[in-house]
Amino acid sequence: MATKRFRFQPLLDLRLAQRDAVRGELAEAIEAHNRLLEQREKLAKEREQTMRDDSVSRVGQLRLDSLLAQGRYERQLAIEQNQLKAAQTQIETEIERRKAVVQLAETEVRRLELLKEKDQIALHALQLKAEQATMDEIAARRRESDRWE
Prior knowledge:
The protein is an all-alpha fold. It has helices at 9-57, 64-148. Helix 1 packs antiparallel against helix 2 (64-148).
């Protein structure tokens, strides 16, 4: 049986490439999100350590300049933590957007794959019909030749 090339194969190949590309973009966004979470954890630990060090250093004599420096450092850590939280929110939004794009790409690919399957089934049915017609013709010729003998 001869095979026929799927008429939308170039489009299917394009959609597969696009799907793979958006999957890669989604993976990059998830990786960025994970790095951001690690940074936030590291910063939280650093703030916690600073607060512990601050409580230990308050025992005994107090120095104004070290207290001011420590307060500035804590404010800076708080600002960084807020910036990371804002970035995390943006990345989470981007991840959701990319998930939607991946889902759309998956749907397009699946639609074309179903069309390809239907095309192959139709081709197979045509081939079976042609084969059956050939067999019927052979049988009819054989009956004719048997009649003349």
